[in-house]
Design brief:
By secondary structure, this protein is an alpha+beta fold. The chain has three helices and four strands. The protein has a four-stranded antiparallel sheet, covered by helices on one side. The relative contact order is 0.17.
């Protein structure tokens, strides 16, 4: 059991950059789509959550109605926020250059 745990820890450490990259892209995509659904399409966030793609079940959504933003979070790894901007639609707040 200990050996299996050590092997799993090494695998996670070795693949942490790709895992963070894929999780970041998935949360950014989900935040932007949910923000557009909510603030451009005018649907409830619970209804927008039904539009998530297969494989994105672990990503949770949180709305800030006052800021007109939606945050998507992949537990313990990454979160991304998309905010509605008049004339531009929903834009990602922290997407790297």
């Amino acid at each position: 059991m200990l050996v299996l745990l050590i092997v799993a820890a090494i695998a996670v450490w070795f693949y942490r950059a790709p895992i963070q990259g894929y999780a970041g892209a998935g949360t950014a995509y989900t935040a932007r789509v949910a923000c557009s659904c909510r603030f451009v399409g005018g649907r409830d966030l619970d209804d927008c959550a039904k539009d998530k793609l297969a494989g994105m079940e672990l990503i949770s959504l949180k709305e800030d109605a006052e800021a007109k933003s939606v945050t998507a979070r992949f537990p313990l790894i990454v979160s991304e926020t998309a905010t509605y901007r008049e004339g531009y639609g929903c834009v990602l707040e922290s997407w790297p250059d």
